[in-house]
Amino acid sequence: MLIFLHILGNNIVPIFTIIILGFIISNKFDLNIFTLSKLIFYLFIPGFIFVNLYTAELSFDMLRILFFSIAYMGASYLVAIIISKIRKYDVSLTSAFQNSIMFNNSGNIGISLITLVFGSAPFVLGGKTPYLTLALTSQVIIMVFMNITMNTIGFYNAGRAKMNVKDSMYQILTMPCIYAILLALVLKYYKIEIITTPLWPTLVYIKDGLVPVSLITLGVQLSKTKFDFGNIDVNIAVFTRLVIGPILALIFIYIFGFYGVIAQTVLISFSVPTAVNTALIAVECDNHQEFASQEVVISTIFSAITLTSVIYIAGTLFPV
Hints:
Elements: H1 2-29, H2 33-55, H3 60-87, H4 91-102, H5 106-118, H6 132-159, H7 165-173, H8 176-189, H9 199-223, H10 232-256, H11 260-269, H12 276-285, H13 289-317
Helix pairs in contact: 1-5, 1-9, 1-13, 2-6, 2-8, 2-9, 2-12, 3-4, 3-6, 3-10, 4-6, 4-10, 4-13, 5-6, 5-9, 6-7, 6-11, 6-12, 10-11, 10-13, 11-13, 12-13
């Protein structure tokens, strides 16, 4: 019981505190969710991806994590399709349901959680955090993959009920994160040094802003969402994301042969709630905003329980 309370207090509570602050501030000042979503999509996400991809050590294990992510997303897509067929969803709700299952909060909650888990006991040795760099690099690969697919497949999914293929592709190509990825890879490949330039501190400030702004935005979204714990479709999506999702991740971890820090990171990362950006994408594309928002909020609330269990299970199954 003590270990659960330790995990809850040190890893989960700090994240939810920022979300609650966003909720409180939004209720007092009525913050604009559209403005916050623009800041996240067009500034903070591209900056975060660029800095982390530019500085990441891309080893073979990182490539395996990328293949893992592709396999996991494919399995999640199939699960979403099967459930949608059973429930007889229309095209627009099927798209919203797919996004809620396929895309998890690997950025704001995932990065924050991995930092807290591997930056605190029992992973601190002699005042140092020897496992944190590997864990964060693994998490960045997952987050980059999640952001690429979310801002391409996710936008296409959300827009296809009301847009044709040409318009959907145009919206995808207006997302700056795609160009941030390409620029980071080109600079990395040609070994062009920018860390010593005056531009680098600016990029680092932008990168550091993603987590708090995204968590605050989630709190703002929560304040504007009507809670309906009796919505069966939302509950199915939440159960699939928080329960079936970790089970799928565990299966693929054994298939890919991960162990230790990487196995723990992957399991935790693919057990986080639905990405807040799926709700923002739904807002941008006007596609089942209420369903998407409720699913994000309710999955985030219940993840306080499920993530505590997953962190404990990860440490038990894959010790370092």
